[in-house]
Design brief:
single chain, alpha/beta, Barwin-like endoglucanases, 2 domains, six-stranded mixed β-barrel, 9 helices, binds zinc ion
Length: 220
């Protein structure tokens, strides 16, 4: 029995083959015993001698691929939980800080129009823009008068002209220092990070001149 066990170890990793060899060189009685060896023996000395493929075949060890997959699945589950938590928190912040635009007012710079939490929670920062001011006069608007590119009437405190490639027409826009507007007009010189703010009279356009401000595209 001792000898056969040694032979079993030498025969490993092929457990089945080992059993066959044992049978062929032993009595019927011993064959019965030796055929029982692998099942009880694999967890002891022989386990270190069998290849990883065979360990998998007998269900003892997970492959590297299985472990990687399990780790990836765990990471994906954790990421999904984190994302759901973040979305829930974001919704709570939005609910606590509703964005209530105030249109159709006299436009002027005011430090009250800061990008507070109602803006940051409900909008996307687009960066710093160059601001100019225009009215419906010939000098500012040529022949277009107070008709916007989207078919509305220019209205102070609501109308701004934008580059539609940067800010889609119809968007709600928050301009820090100046408040809420709607992107409803375009202009030949209004490209990229430039916004033209409509005012109802030319003198104020002249006096406000050129400004710079952080701009937010608000969620609908
Ligand atoms: Zn003008």
């Amino acid at each position: 029995m001792h000898f056969k066990k040694m032979k079993s170890l030498l025969c490993l990793p092929a457990i089945a083959l080992c059993a066959t060899l044992s049978i062929s060189s032993a009595s019927a009685h011993d064959a019965t015993i030796s055929s029982n060896i692998p099942a009880s023996d694999t967890s002891v000395a022989s386990i270190g001698m069998i290849s990883s493929n065979e360990q998998v075949a007998i269900g003892l060890v997970r492959t590297t691929e299985e472990m990687v997959r399990a780790r990836e699945e765990l990471a994906a589950r954790q990421a999904a939980i984190e994302a759901a938590k973040l979305a829930e928190e974001q919704e709570a912040i939005q609910a606590a800080n509703p964005y209530i635009p105030n249109y159709e007012r006299v436009v002027a710079y005011s430090p009250d129009y800061i990008a507070n939490q109602s803006i940051t929670a409900n909008g996307t920062a687009l960066g710093n823009f160059k601001l100019t001011f225009y009215c419906a006069c010939e000098q500012c608007s040529g022949g277009y008068g107070n008709n916007t590119a989207t078919g509305t009437k220019c209205t102070e405190g609501r109308t701004i002209a934008v580059d539609p490639k940067v800010i889609p027409l119809g968007s709600e826009v928050f301009i820090e220092g100046f408040g809420s507007f709607i992107a409803e007009d375009t202009g030949g010189a209004i490209k990229q990070n430039k916004i033209d703010i409509y005012l109802s009279d030319h003198d104020r356009c002249y006096s406000l001149g050129v400004a710079k401000a952080n701009v937010y595209l608000m969620n609908k």
